[in-house]
Amino acid sequence: MNFIRKNLDKLKKPFEKGGKLEKFYPAFDAFETFLFVPNHTTKSGSHIRDAVDLKRTMVTVIIALIPALLYGIYNTGYQYFIQTGLNLLS
Amino acid sequence: MSKDISIKSGANLALTGVASKEIETAKHSSTFAIYPDDFFSLIPRMMVREGDRLKVGTPIFHDKNDDKIIIVSPVSGIVKSIDRGDKRKILKVVIDKDGDDKIKHEINQNLTKEKIISLLLESGSWSYIRQRPYNIIARTDKIPKAIFVSTHSTAPYDVDYDFIIKERLDDFQNGVNVMSKIISKPITLTTSANKESIFLNQKNLEIINIKGKHPSGNVSFQINRINPINMGESVWVINPEDIANIGSFFRTGNFNPTRTIAVSGASVINPKYYKTKIGSKISSIINDSDINNLKGNRYINGDPLTGSKVDFDGYIGYYNNIFSVIEEGNHYRMFGWLPFKDNHVPSFSRTSFSWLLSKKKKFNTNLNGEERAIVVTGEMEKFFPMDIYPMQLLKACMMQDIEKMEQLGIYEVIPEDFGLIDYSNTSKIEAQEIIKDGIQLMLKEVE
Prior knowledge:
Structural class of chain A: mainly alpha
Number of helices of chain A: 3
Largest interface: A-B, 31 and 55 residues
Radius of gyration of chain A: 23 Å
Distance between the termini of chain B: 38 Å
Number of strands of chain A: 1
Order of helices and strands of chain A: HHEH
Strand content of chain B: 15-25%
Oligomer: heterodimer
Strand order of the largest sheet of chain B: 1-14-13-12-15-10-11
Radius of gyration of chain B: 22 Å
């Protein structure tokens, strides 16, 4: 983890304010926050925060969609074979 | 006879490092300070200069909008400095303690309502009274419809008021008697339903037992259930220890700034209660050696959900009974978005097994994510036991739509009620700050 973090810190420099690639900071930030939860601390309001963030909430959406995806794959094939009259098993 | 009320939604945050039930008298503090920011929406006008001599009860500053509201010195001494920030805003008034001179007020036996109010104002004890709506120091021209005192404490690290007031029951009763004369009816006192309260035998009180998790200890929710505020009405809220301080003032004639502080936190070696005065230096209460990893902690005047950040060489706030120490969390964590990873980080979410682990949890100040747009997940309503839509109210405050804010119930809430929403929401928005700005806008535009 330390090795990845060190390299990421090195990579980050040109993307920071005043750097050459400042324009592409959002893209870098997306990649960085995929790997690591940032080291940001609370500034105002509640001083402690829950472990859940929007990324984790959205992952549950992906998990919830998996059964629908699997059934969709199955059903598309099923309908295809009914319509074409092909039966690969026989 | 007492009534029972049960508040259903909410959740308790169990933190490690809760103060044990022992009181120690804090060491002598050589300097004291008052932060004007402790008084919501008060604009201070100084009444003393650097080098002036003060007694206990000498006015330091008054409110710009109402010069009858004064904040007095908690100690006798000399004004050491008046620290100013941007635009000459007064950050704090520091006093060097010296001697023990007190301003004595004449207290008659036959106190009338008007006499009580004028004595409270003259002595500075008026600052102990806060008014709903808005949570400001009570307006001097309005008599409230009720006075609320809550001993039902549910916030993380919150103090046990039965334990604090136990030794001062006479002063507490005296304060209750005096304050109930103002409204000509008993004061509403709320207690925890799950334990025997020491206040049950006190007079002039209407006692209501509250059952429920945090935030049922917040007075807003209690007022909403017991005696809701309608347009044009107001309710006063007083901290139980301040009722005892007011009682002590009417017994002795001297302003009483006693404050019992629960020093709590996982980094505190022996968390316990300390008896001290308002504005005393934090390092006079706890030594460096009482805290693990002195520089790696955040020091908070108040509880971790609603308190304000302070340096270790800062001072105790005006109203708080809690002083919390929380570890700073400025470190990275890998793949935090994976559900069921890092279960040691506490969470109410079912994407974590943290609820299966030990009951008492260790928290740090990491944001655990970045601020994002609001997503409707229905989680705010789970932690808001009031007939108000919290998300819609937050959005109205962001839009500065006064009419909508009124319709959605801005008069009934204060920032601290959004503490748990601040903690639990996925989008990491600063709900308390948004409500604070909203209330400030209401004060400016409507009042």
